[in-house]
């Protein structure tokens, strides 16, 4: 791996951690907080591509597992992974990788709509497909109850996907990461 690539992986790991500085919004009906960190997941996958985007979130996940307080609210450690939020957090490297893979297949013709569609599919739906069953298992509720409770995340996640999609195509061109 080139030094430039290591720097980008580290930078995007730090961006996701920095988004954790924003305090989580806790809700009384679901044990998973609303955070800004999924914006960083979408951004890493979109800008860095599959390999580097997935790797940046894998490094982030390893920091969480090691106990670094990089999650929103200063959380970290195995306890968080084995809690209700764990499925969402475990999905982040997968999501960043799949976003990157889909972006790489579309690179010459990127625009807001294509990037938004990719982020909705791989940055929201894929994360929910992993996170919602995890909540159900960890809290002993039905998947339907977990899905209904998780619906509160959808408006914010759509806004995050739109934010990333609004400037990522230009950032990809400027960083010249795709050869």
Automatic annotation (TrEMBL):
Instruction: Tell me which species this is from.
Output: Metabacillus herbersteinensis
State if Transmembrane helix is listed as a keyword. Answer: yes
Q: Where is the signal peptide?
A: none
This protein's membrane topology, according to the annotation, is:
Multi-pass membrane protein
Q: Which domain of life is it from?
A: Bacteria
Q: What is its main location?
A: membrane
Membrane-crossing residue ranges in chain numbering: 52-71, 78-103, 115-137
Compartmental location: Cell membrane
Keywords assigned by UniProt, alphabetized: Cell membrane, Membrane, Transmembrane, Transmembrane helix, Transport
Q: InterPro entries from the entry?
A: BioY
User: Which family is annotated?
Assistant: Belongs to the BioY family.
What is this protein identified as? Biotin transporter
